[in-house]
Each structure stands twice: as C-alpha cells, then as structure tokens.
Amino acid sequence: MRLASPEDSLALGARLAEVARPGDVIALSGPLGAGKTSIARGLLAALGLEEEAPSPSFAIVQPYAPPEVRFPVLHVDLYRIEDPEEAGELGLDDARHDSLLLVEWPERLSDHWWHDALWLSLELTPDGARALTAKVPAAWKDRWPQSLP
User: Fold this and answer.
1) Which domain CATH number covers 53?
2) Could you list the residue range(s) of the whole structural domain that residue 54 is in?
3) Tell me, what's the pLDDT at 145?
4) Which of 32, 101, 129, 136 could crosslink 25 through cysteines, CB 3.0-4.6 Å?
5) What domain count does the chain have?
6) Which portions of the chain are predicted below pLDDT 70?
7) What is a single Pfam family found in this protein's UniProt entry (predicted)?
8) What is the CA 98 to chain-centroid distance, rounded?
9) Which helix (H) or strand (E) holds 31?
10) Taking the model in full, what pTM does it have?
11) Exposed, middle or buried, 89 (CB in 10 Å: 0-12/13-18/19+)?
C-alpha cells in the first residue's frame, strides 16, 4: 500500500479504528519520520480523542480511557527501551486483556510479544510517500481488507 501524504496516514488510522477492538495489538514499525505516530493519531482521533495525541517517546506509554476515547488504548513507544527486561515494568501483558495496544518500535522486544499483532511496516520512498506492508495474523484476517483506505 502507498501512503502519499500525512493525510493518508491519518486516514488509515481512522479506518483501523473502525475495526480495532480491545485485546488487539497494532505494531507500527519503520524509521524515524515514517508516519507511525500519524497512523496512531488518526486512530485515536477516530476513537474520539479531541486533541492531537502527543508522541509517547518520552512517556513510553500514553494511556487513553473512556470517555476520552471509545475504549481503553495504550499508545506505546519502545524507541528508548534498551533492555527487553524493562518492558515487564510497562504492564503491557495486563493491558492486553482490556485495551488496544498501539506499539511503535515493536522490534525493540522479541517477536513473542507480538505473535498476534497486526504488524504494519513503513518505508520512506524517494518521492516522499510511505510504502506500507502488513503482516496480518489470523485474528485480523476478516478485518484487514475492510480497513484499507
């Protein structure tokens, strides 16, 4: 999939909000500036967040809960995680039961954390667009085609 503009990234996030649910994990992978946070912002806005979602780079985990959004969401940025042992302190396992996890830089932790995640990888293209590829787990098979912009 090609995302030609930041608006396309926001729109993809909004479409994902239509099919995402608590217990899901959406992994957003790609270099700095690839649009991971834009997709997350589009999703959060579509779930009801009125202000622009900040990047969770420094907080690492930015929680959102009703009535701010339709259901609980944890926006996670693992960029600053250097030791996978640190992840245990974030409470991600517990949150997976009742929250949607939006995880930027998921490759900072081993694949077992994300075995059932919808994994979206972004690459910058020479013309400034983003190329998106998706690894779609069984739990998303019936939902993913419907979420394309």
Assistant:
1) 3.40.50.300
2) 2-89+105-141
3) 63
4) 101
5) 1
6) 145-149
7) TsaE
8) 16
9) none
10) 0.91
11) exposed
